[in-house]
Write a structure and sequence with these properties.
The protein is α+β, with helices and mostly antiparallel strands. It has one domain. The protein contains 11 helices and 9 strands. A 5-stranded antiparallel sheet has the order 4-3-2-6-7, with helices on both faces. The protein has a two-stranded antiparallel sheet with strand order 1-5. β8 and β9 form a beta hairpin. α1 packs across α11. It starts with 5 loop residues before the first helix and ends in a 21-residue tail after the last helix.
Length: about 260
């Protein structure tokens, strides 16, 4: 019998082939793809498929540790005005830790915690994709291995010193940015989540990477991390091994499969 998780394999292949390609997917594709990411990650479809096929251990994702990168750079998350974890490849460059931070003024000594007179630092961590085989002190921070739940709950962005998880960014795109009005996406009574979504919305146009708006870049980074994950490759192979050649292809999101599959 074909695996009931064939759509999971096809969605992972779509992320691997389309989101991880040299060409930057358009914003509309990223926005629509957020629903797929929500099902695969937040909806636990990857974990369910993993268990169903008897794979050992837990599926993992490699991606930046935003807090550890900030500390390494001498910053604190609470001092970040706008920042994203990143981790995606764009035009042959791997970008992580993009943003700006309040810092102590090196000239006057005014603290980063002061109401005014502090300095501002802007920066990012970049490297050529062609040099990914090389390692240095930043490698374990940029390519940290996470269990999926820990990856989703870790900081994906910061706005005004408030941490925003990767999970919330996916939900923001799948609900609010996906065309659902904010009140309907969160419910009038869910004031806390609505406030968090408003915080995420404030990040729009605050950070950009190679002409890509920062929030979309963070969503791209999450999709690429899942598409490039060795665990995803293992899961795809396990699911495909259970599929007869004549099995009709399907997808979670109604897209036709790429030619040749």
């Amino acid at each position: 019998m074909p695996s009931p998780y064939l759509p999971v394999a096809e969605d992972l292949e779509w992320l691997r082939d389309d989101w991880c390609s040299a060409a930057m997917p358009p914003a509309s594709t990223l926005r629509r793809g957020s629903g797929t990411l929500r099902q695969l990650l937040c909806g636990h479809m990857v974990q369910r498929a993993w268990r169903h096929h008897g794979l050992e251990g837990s599926p993992t994702i490699n991606g930046p540790d935003l807090n550890a990168l900030c500390i390494h750079g001498g910053h604190e998350l609470r001092h970040a005005g706008s920042a994203i974890a990143g981790g995606a490849h764009v035009r042959g460059v791997h970008y992580s830790l993009i943003g700006l931070w309040r810092t102590d003024n090196p000239t006057t000594g005014v603290s980063a915690d002061a109401d005014e007179g502090f300095a501002v630092a802007v920066g990012s961590v970049m490297r050529l994709v062609s040099g990914e085989g090389e390692t240095d002190e930043l490698t374990p921070l940029v390519e940290r291995e996470w269990k999926i739940g820990d990856y989703l709950d870790a900081p994906g962005a910061v706005r005004g010193g408030q941490v925003i998880s990767r999970r919330l960014i996916i939900e923001f795109f799948a609900n609010y940015a996906g065309g659902v009005h904010l009140d309907r996406a969160t419910g009038q009574s869910n004031a806390e989540k609505r406030a968090l979504f408003e915080l995420v919305a404030e990040l729009e146009q605050r950070v950009s990477v190679d002409e890509v708006e920062g929030l979309y870049f963070e969503l791209l980074s999450i999709g690429q991390a899942l598409g490039r994950s060795p665990a995803s490759a293992r899961l795809i192979a396990a699911i495909r091994a259970n599929i007869p050649a004549e099995a009709p292809p399907t997808t979670l999101h109604g897209r036709p499969p790429p030619a040749g599959r």
